[in-house]
Amino acid sequence: MSDMAVKKEIFMKRLEREIKTVGIMIDIYCRKHHGGDRFCESCQELYYYARQRSLKCQYGEDKPVCGKCQVHCYKPKMKAKIREVMKFSGQKMIYSHPILAILHLMAKRKKAPSTKKRE
Questions:
Q1: Is 118 helix (H, G, I), strand (E, B) or coil?
Q2: What is the per-residue DSSP string for 52-90?
Q3: Global confidence as pTM
Q4: Of these four, 21, 34, 56, 84, which has the most CB atoms within 10 Å of its CB?
């Protein structure tokens, strides 16, 4: 990875980085479980759902990682799917995307903000 790519990952906005990280996690999961070099229909649906949930988050740019959030905005079926994806892919990200993996781990340690309405 070039120095420029590393700097871009570190300095991209938190929300953009989270969406990118989730996309990579889904990609890792889909390649292993469903084969192919593109998202299958089910994984593409999950990615778009996760992306929309992130973009509509009431916390905006202060959004915590979903596991730490006080507000549970995922439908139960999608929550179970994304949890399965993250459990499988999280460990593997350290090899394919170490910077994003470390930044995600750091974000998981950050305390979630108190519940507030989005401005």
A1: coil
A2: HHHHT-TTGGGPPPGGG-SS--S-HHHHHHHHHHHHHHH
A3: 0.77
A4: 21
